[in-house]
């Protein structure tokens, strides 16, 4: 069954069209990676799926429900940003529980879910710290933890590792892969990093100027890019 369905989705800012009719089906539990040059619309597309940006045209379906007009908190998706976007004045525990608190969950239920996510991400010992007391990798783990606690059907990642140094990026990449194996939920992941795309993706979507250039599994794209543009992203390591 499809977890996500995009039908002729478009986005216009003022008079400028930046997303030109995207059609895509994402299967339940699939790990889909969006790649493409800066400005091609990756973040805009994710933000539309997340409900952080209006959909100008077309339809978006999540879990069999048309959600064009459904507000972000009710879509069953969670987004992890490049910049972590943690609240500096809240502890790790409070950051991770924040969304549940907004949804008026009971404190004991919030505590249980936060503890569970903290265990998954090895954050147990850091729960009472503030973001400024954490390393970059730990902060990103908290941001992922905050996304996990709501038990979303769909995870959206917007270049989550690009602020980390190379070594940590490799480590976190493995953690995200293992997280996906355990949670078995649908993931849509934007990256500039070709190796990240190749290792994480069930399927890669190559975007160019707000359009899909090619979709395929990493091996297919690597072996049979439709054109030079795709080959530049997938074929030849830079
Ligand atoms: P990417 O994430 O692939 O780098 P974006 O989705 O951020 O690309 O941007 C796609 C295009 O939309 C760019 O041309 C960008 O300038 C434009 N854009 C993004 N957000 C806005 C906005 N809020 N207002 C106007 N233009 C925007
Ligand atoms: Mg972006």
TrEMBL record:
Alphabetically list the UniProt keywords: ATP-binding, Nucleotide-binding, Transport
Specify the ABC transporter domain's residue ranges: 4-234
Alphabetically, the GO molecular function entries are: ABC-type maltose transporter activity; ATP binding; ATP hydrolysis activity
Which Gene Ontology terms of cellular component type are present? ATP-binding cassette (ABC) transporter complex, substrate-binding subunit-containing; maltose transport complex
- Please state which protein family the record places this protein in: Belongs to the ABC transporter superfamily.
State the name under which the record lists this protein.
ABC transporter ATP-binding protein
The species is Paracoccus onubensis
* Portion of the full-length sequence here: 1 to 238 of 350
